[in-house]
Every structure is written in C-alpha cells, then in structure tokens.
Amino acid sequence: MASEPAVRARLRRAGQEHLLRFSAELAPGARAALLAALAPLEPGALREHCLRAAAARARAPGPPPGLAARLRPLPPERLGSAARSDPATRRLWEEEGLRQIALNKVAVLLLAGGQGTRLGVAYPKGMYQVGLPSGKTLYQLQAERIRRVEQLAGGRHGTRCTVPWYIMTSEFTLGPTAQFFQEHGYFGLDPGNVVMFEQRMLPAVAFDGRAILERKDKVAMAPDGNGGLYCALADHGILEDMARRGVEFVHVYCVDNILVRLADPVFIGFCVLRGADCGAKVVEKAYPEEPVGVVCLVDGAPQVVEYSEISPETASLRTPGGGLLYGAGNICNHFFTRSFLQAVTREFEPLLQPHVAVKKVPYVDEQGNQVQPLEPNGIKMEKFVFDVFPFAENFMAFEVLREEEFSPLKNAEAADRDNPTTARRALLAQHLRWALQAGARFLDAHGAPLPGLASPPSGGEPPAVCEISPLVSYAGEGLEVHLRGREFQSPLILDEHLIGASQP
C-alpha cells in the first residue's frame, strides 16, 4: 500500500494536495481507504484532467463558431429505413440478421454505468419497474428479448444459438446489478453468457480546477461517460472474450429505452449486408428544438452533433419534402464490428475529446461540513460512445419508428416527458397495436366492443391494457395463433405461462 507521504507528493505534483487536508482527522481504516483510492491517480494525468475540465467549463456555451457551414445531412446512400423499405427488403435484412445470430456471431452490449439521479432512485436504472401489469423491470424485459431472439434464430436455422450479453457497469452499479441478476436467476439466461465489467471513474472537478472532496475520506468520482466503453473493453479483455466466442458483430444500446430491440435482426442484417463497420439507429426528430443529438456529417465525416451545438436557425431548416434537414435523432443504439472496436481501442481512443457535464456534486467545505449544493458546482468529464463515428470506414444510419423502438426513461414522474408513465404507456400502446394487428378484439366491462380501437392509440393511457411477454413475441410476430378472432376484456397479459389461460 502506498504511504501517505508518497501519495501526498504525487498530489502536490498534480496541484491537488487539498484532497488530503483532513487526513489527520481520519480513523486508520478510513485513511487507508482514501490513500488506496488516490494512489492509482497518475499526477500528470490528474493535473491535465482538472485543467481541461476547468478550461472546458470556461468556454462559451452554444454553437461552435462556423459549425453551420461545416454541417451536411447524411446522404441517402448512408441511410436506411425500416418504415420506408418494402417488405421484401425488410425480410432480406431480417433473414441475414437471424442467420448471423444462429451462427453465434452476434452479441449485445448494455451501457449501464449511470447513476439514475434524474430518475430519482438510488439503484441502477435497469432494476426500475415502470408500473407494467406484470411488474417486470427493464433488465427482465431485455433478458427476455434476448431469449426470444435466440429462439427465433435457432428455430429458423434448426440450431441452438447464444447471444452473449455484455453489461458495462460502474463502481455505483456493478454490485447491485450483479446481485439483482443472481436473485432473479439471470432471468433464464445462462450466467456464463452474461458478462459484467466496470468502466473507469474520474474525479469530479470544481469550477476552479480542484478535484472535489465528497467526504473527508472520499474523492467525488464519476463514471467517464458511455464513451468510457472503449477503455473498459481494453481494461477487461472483453474483445478477447468476444473473439473466443466467435462474435463478429456487436449491438450496443443504453439501459433506459423500454422499447429497445436487443440484437435486432433487421438492424444487424441491414448493417452486415451494407458492409458497415459502424452503424446507428435514428428516429425522426419530433420538432426542431427536441433535445436529442443529430446524426449528420461534419466536414464530410459522420458525427453526432449535440442539440445545444446547433443554432435554432439550422435546426429549423427543412427539406423540399417538408421534413427537417437535420432530423436524424440519435437514440444511443449502435452496431459495431468487433474489428472496428479493436481498431478503436488500439488506435483511436486517445483521440476522443471529453465533453463537459455540469452537475450538483456533494462536497465538504473547509471546515469539514457536508454540503448538498443547490446549484451546479462541479464538472464531470465524459466521453460519448458515438465519438468514434468519424473513424468508421463505412458508417450507416438506420431510421426506425419512434413509437416502435424509442421511449427513454430518464426523468422522475414530475417531468413532462421521458418519465415512468410515458415509458409504460409507450410499451402498452405498442402491445395493443400488435394485438389488434393480430386480430384480437377488446371489450369493455359490460361486454361491448371498446370504441376508438380502429387506429393505434397515441399519447395518454391506451384504451385497453395489453401486455405481451417478450418470450411470446419479440416484435409482434406469431401472435395470430393466440389472438385472431378472440375477444378479451382489459387487462390482457399474454405470458408464455398464461397462453391458453387468458380470458376469452
């Protein structure tokens, strides 16, 4: 274990000796824990990190000068569409995706290192229940989609296949996530195919460039953003593990999207047949000011430009057909080849530039009192998973329908969007559409047909509650045998164990 004089000398070189200012007051165990946390921080890197954070915070917010002239929308040859393609083309993409899954060449990778502070819970977001009739959590829904897509691919090709699930956690989420999976029997998955690993942590920095002491014995640390994926892949030998399993294609997604289709065969097949080394699902922006990043070209290279970096004038530009010129909204849903990820970890990761996130960071004042700030007081430096897009040799974007594939859970119930209610409604509305398309009819409590079901509901509570287990249907397929010509009263829960027992 590093001695206190040695750690103090390293902090002095980094200009951060204040982190030990309460050392003499600490009990031996607490002092040892603090020294153990500080010892790995390399002085030069720590100094550079703190200086860079303060400098980035000082830069003027808003669109970078001259950015508008460097922007171009994605050209048609770089963009596919689930909704605007003919059924035969979609089937071709889906068949190729299922073939690759059946060959055990596809893995999914979940980005789950965030703390969920905006949601207002003290546990990982994947453990959250949005209020579905089944009580399922985000983790359970995702695990069951993996099991279903394995069944679909295996059934199509007469084989048993596996989609490994890699889960990037952080110091905050690893322990609770691992325990949750163990308590729930990995939701029916083989534990050997669920691989959890941690991303790196970086000190939070005050506006004056000093790392923040959260408690007398603890530095305020934060995950290094979902772009910390690339260092974490190298740190934990994840790409080597993928190679041993024969994985060639990786679907990367964020934990909070309740509608996410894991290892989506249509997306996988599209990217493989187009020869993409890097791909991104996008949805059409709902309105010019919608706070989502835009997938576009900057100086001819694919990039995600944050909504705060695009001027209102540029965001409002329209195509001749009336759509937004910069309307390809990023939803943190990506395709990578393993070889591209290897190139990133070996060559490109050091070139990624961190982004500034200004946050409220608890700290101790000069007298050692714990302070919960009311206003943002600290800087967390983050890298984003999409920062690697410019390094792709063949980048492709794939547009999907928002109502089918994107409803993020980011905020507490008090917010007006992206909250538990909007997530629950999005899933139940989707399942009701699937049931109606499969030929089901719904009745009210008196046995009369429910009105207003001829067209899919949008917004508000669906007129009938219908929840379909991912183990029964991945994306609406195969439901006719259970539903066509039958009448149901709300709520209908279609689960693998309840099929046949549902009320007629």
Secondary-structure blueprint of this entry?
Layout: H1 4-14, H2 28-38, H3 43-58, H4 67-70, E1 71-72, E2 79-81, H5 87-102, E3 106-111, H6 138-157, E4 165-169, H7 174-183, E5 194-198, E6 201-203, E7 205-206, E8 213-215, E9 218-219, E10 221-223, H8 229-235, H9 238-245, E11 249-254, H10 265-273, E12 278-284, E13 294-298, E14 301-305, H11 312-315, E15 328-337, H12 338-348, E16 355-359, E17 363-364, E18 370-371, E19 378-382, E20 395-399, H13 402-405, H14 420-437, E21 441-443, E22 466-468, H15 480-483, E23 487-489, E24 492-494
Parallel strand pairs: 2-20, 3-4, 3-11, 4-5, 12-20, 21-23, 22-24
Antiparallel strand pairs: 1-13, 6-10, 7-19, 8-9, 11-15, 12-15, 13-14, 16-19, 17-18
Question: In a nutshell, what does this entry contain?
Answer:
With 504 residues, this protein is of the alpha/beta class. It has helices spanning 4-14, 28-38, 43-58, 67-70, 87-102, 138-157, 174-183, 229-235, 238-245, 265-273, 312-315, 338-348, 402-405, 420-437, 480-483; strands at residues 71-72, 79-81, 106-111, 165-169, 194-198, 201-203, 205-206, 213-215, 218-219, 221-223, 249-254, 278-284, 294-298, 301-305, 328-337, 355-359, 363-364, 370-371, 378-382, 395-399, 441-443, 466-468, 487-489, 492-494. The protein contains 15 helices and 24 strands.
